[in-house]
Request: fold
Amino acid sequence: MKILLVFDENFQIEKEKICDFLNKNIQYLHFTVWSGTLKIPNNLITKDSFSAVLNDIGKSIDNIKEYDDIYCFTDVPYHNNYFFSHIYTTPSIAIISFWQWGELTNLPKSNGIIYFIADILALMLDESDFRHQETTGCIYDFLWNKTGIDDGMREGRICPLCLERIIGNISSDDQQELLSDLKILLNLLSSASKWNNDILSDESIPSKQETALCKKRAPSTEKGILVMLASPGDTVIERKYILSHLESKFRVNGHEKRCGKRIMVNGWEDLPSQPGYPQDVINRELAEKSDIIVTLFKHKLGTPTIDLTTGKERAASGTVEELMLALNNYDNNSPLGMAYFYQKTPKIDASAKNRDELLKHWDDREAFREYISTRMIYKPYLKKEELLNDLLLDLERVIVSCFE
Reply:
């Protein structure tokens, strides 16, 4: 899908840097900057001036039919004070207004450009035209209160209900690729914005931990990258699906070719029956020998591990212990940690006898998620298919960034 970026003659932005950033980080969409400039008559975007812009662009761009979408950026306001309007012509054209940007947020326009591109892509994926009427931080907020754009950039998220709706409506590979690019943009946007960084700046990497993980290292074996899957007992369906498909899909879908490494995926199921405290065996035989530990969490953390010497709790669960093995070490001999959290809260019947226990499991999971949020970037998921797709893309990027 080809998109042309058009900028108002008075719009101050590093055009080529924005374009390079987009093309470097996403895979399905391809962006080009128009060498000409946008001119809006009367310094106000109305129905008539929008039509004038369409005519001007149509006459000025010789190869206009090569593009699927054209996104125009300006500081000129809309007569109705909206952010943008999208006309579904061929190609479709959107004019995005940054009128009084400095009154709405202290984040730079470059972050806003990425937000609005993500916003338009999100609308492409949802035929329902749904919009949150209140500000929630979801990309599907209508933003009646335009200051909500600040929350939207900092959160960079799709809420669970919207994500479930979108995934349920996806019916083609093109839509799946579009969703993958949208997720990448939102993750990059949130990572930069929540630290008040320009998304184009090298400082947009949010944590020392992430920086440490990007130091090149050698795989533990010449055969490829050893990936361990760790998860508590309530992820049986997701776990079985990932163990069955991750390794083969990584090869068949071209990820292995692009990153130059094959992956070998293992779990506790691959260990032979043997004596010893189970968690110690898993740590020794799998976790400590792995290059990457992928952890999945659904509604609970799992069963606590015990210090056999003192009888006291060692970690909140085996999965937690395995992830912390990666996060508590910063040298190149320790595995890298990746975490994925189910987005929807559990449905608990008010009359259930174990209701308090289930609620505590969820509270503990949420507390742990908050705890690691300052130590690593984690990802949300809803369906196992979406989880697999995210894992494939994330593993490729981690391998390219972190391994020799």
Observations:
- The domain at 208-402 is CATH 3.40.50 (Rossmann fold).
- The CA atoms of residues 236 and 298 lie 10 Å apart.
